[in-house]
TrEMBL record:
Keywords: Acyltransferase, Cytoplasm, Fatty acid biosynthesis, Fatty acid metabolism, Lipid biosynthesis, Lipid metabolism, Multifunctional enzyme, Transferase. The lineage of its organism: Bacteria, Pseudomonadati, Pseudomonadota, Alphaproteobacteria, Hyphomicrobiales. The active site is at C113, H250, N280. CDD domains: KAS_III. Residues 235-323 form the Beta-ketoacyl-[acyl-carrier-protein] synthase III C-terminal domain. Pathway: Lipid metabolism; fatty acid biosynthesis. It is an enzyme of class 2 (transferase). PANTHER family: 3-OXOACYL-[ACYL-CARRIER-PROTEIN] SYNTHASE (PTHR43091), BETA-KETOACYL-[ACYL-CARRIER-PROTEIN] SYNTHASE III, CHLOROPLASTIC (PTHR43091:SF1). The gene is fabH_1. This is Beta-ketoacyl-[acyl-carrier-protein] synthase III.
């Protein structure tokens, strides 16, 4: 059985760090309100002239270095973003050129905050079917460009950043002890569009638009919908929740994450939380959090890691990886 095994991981945050107190100078908010409602203390912001492809390329180069591979070894890039450099071409092809990858295929995936889980699942299908050997899966965002800086209910919640993994198609024995992606599930439901969307776009308004969100509704839906897909993902391989070593959810809000972990009976010390330092970086949040937990020694080879995300669309998904 072919499995998609993680050979390297890397991430990148823009230099500029913006604290809650910094935001309190531009909108009517406070560090206390933001920390209490969201757990966020700071976020990073791309500099002028620094695009999603720049963040993505840096994260990809770090993941490649860890994997001991060159850009020319990669034959697939799946880049998840809802803040691409341009309407077209795909940001993935810009990254392809930047890393010196001359063959294979590169494309973007748009699943908002679930983008990285979508990207992983897509790449996993390419690798397990033998259509590619080495894939880069990247989540990269510059949400600072689509925030309404006059709307305190949304502008305090998001940040910029990127994360990437290198996957390699590797022969396993088909058991739950194999390294690599053991299961992945994707879902979407287009009926909730009005609760989280950008009010512009190429075909509708001809403008970029700004992010609009009904925070309370999103909160309710997130806590309500996510547990089922996690149960289904573990059921796919017949594993119980207490087999999970690390839960690495999309980092939108520490209250959503705690409520979800509690519902599943996952111990708080198994939950990787980076929302305090990164805020919500959409498709970049999971690979950023994974990279932190790998580099600080929490996630080790052989650990069972459960990923989960939920975002605009609505889209949601989960993946189970033997690291
Ligand atoms: N600073 C100070 N006060 C604020 C701010 C702010 N930044 N934002 C809102 N308020 C005020 C509101 O105006 C309201 O005042 P009022 O009572 O006088 O009307 C009060 O605070 C309470 O507002 P609520 O919206 O009721 O606050 P709530 O407890 O629901 O928290 C929040 C809002 C944090 C957005 C919460 O609903 C939430 O976390 N929702 C989920 C959002 C999310 O995570 N989205 C992303 C998930 S999907 C994805 O990642 C794309």
């Amino acid at each position: 059985t072919l499995r998609s095994v993680v050979r390297g991981i890397g991430s990148y945050l823009p230099e500029k760090r913006v604290t809650n107190d910094d935001l309190a100078k531009i909108v009517d908010t406070s560090d206390e309100w933001i920390v209490q409602r969201t757990g966020i203390r700071a976020r990073h912001q791309a500099a002028e002239g620094e695009f999603t492809s720049h963040l993505a390329t840096k994260a990809a180069e770090r993941a490649l270095a860890e994997a001991g591979l060159k850009g020319s070894d990669i034959d697939l890039i799946v880049l998840a973003t809802s803040t691409p450099d341009n309407t077209f071409p795909a940001t993935a092809t810009t990254v392809q050129a930047n890393i010196g990858m001359t063959g294979g295929a590169a494309f973007d995936v748009q699943a908002v905050c679930t983008g990285f889980v979508y990207g992983l699942s897509i790449a996993d299908n390419f690798l397990r079917s033998g259509s590619a050997k080495h894939a880069l899966v990247i989540g990269a965002e510059t949400y600072s460009r689509i925030l309404d800086w006059n709307d305190r209910t949304t502008c305090v919640l998001f940040g910029d950043g990127a994360g990437a993994v290198v996957l390699e198609a590797t022969m396993g024995d088909g058991s739950i002890h194999d390294e690599g992606i053991l299961a992945a599930r994707l879902r979407s439901d287009g009926t909730h569009k009005s609760k989280l969307f950008v009010d512009g776009g190429v075909s509708s308004t001809g403008t970029i638009g700004k992010l609009r969100m009904d925070g309370k509704e999103v909160f309710k839906l997130a806590v309500g919908m996510v547990p089922q897909i996690l149960h289904d993902t573990l059921d796919d391989v017949g594993l119980p929740f207490d087999a999970v070593d690390w839960f690495v959810p999309h980092q939108a809000n520490s209250r959503i994450i705690h409520a979800t972990a509690e519902k599943l009976g996952l111990a708080p010390e198994k939950v990787v939380l980076t929302v305090a330092d990164h805020a919500n970086t959409s498709s970049a949040s999971i690979p950023l959090a994974l990279d932190v937990a790998v580099k600080d020694g929490r996630i080790k080879k052989g650990d069972l890691v459960l990923l989960e995300a939920m975002g605009g669309g609505f889209t949601w998904g989960a993946a189970l990886i033997r690291w």
